[in-house]
Design brief:
Layout: H1 2-20, E1 24-32, E2 37-42, E3 53-59, E4 73-81, E5 84-91
Parallel strand pairs: 3-5
Antiparallel strand pairs: 1-2, 1-4, 2-3, 4-5
């Protein structure tokens, strides 16, 4: 029985880690380089238990803002840091392949 409970606890711990690593789809609505903020219309953010909505995020690394513009479709990770919602990773739209 102890072995079963240990395995269950371990699997639940790994499930939480996997959710935190998921990227969320979003659309850039506004880029505020001076303030280091990004307005995103996003899908569900599972690790934050947040439903789809449009909201403003602080960006952990302002250099990320140089790679996106309003209207871009992106994938991102967000976390709560010091009471703020922070984009910790941002994948800009793919560059089209030219032939």
């Amino acid at each position: 029985m102890k072995k079963l409970l240990s395995l269950l606890a371990l699997s639940l711990a790994f499930a939480g880690v996997a959710r935190a690593d998921e990227l969320t789809d979003g659309e850039v609505r506004k880029v505020d380089k001076a303030a280091g903020k990004l307005t995103l219309k996003h899908g569900e953010i599972k690790n934050l238990e947040m439903p789809p909505m449009t909201m403003i995020f602080v960006v952990k690394d302002k250099a990320l803002l140089e790679r996106v513009k309003a209207g871009d479709k992106v994938r991102f990770k967000a976390a709560r840091e010091g009471g703020a919602l922070v984009v910790t990773e941002l994948q800009p739209p793919s560059t089209p392949v030219t032939k």
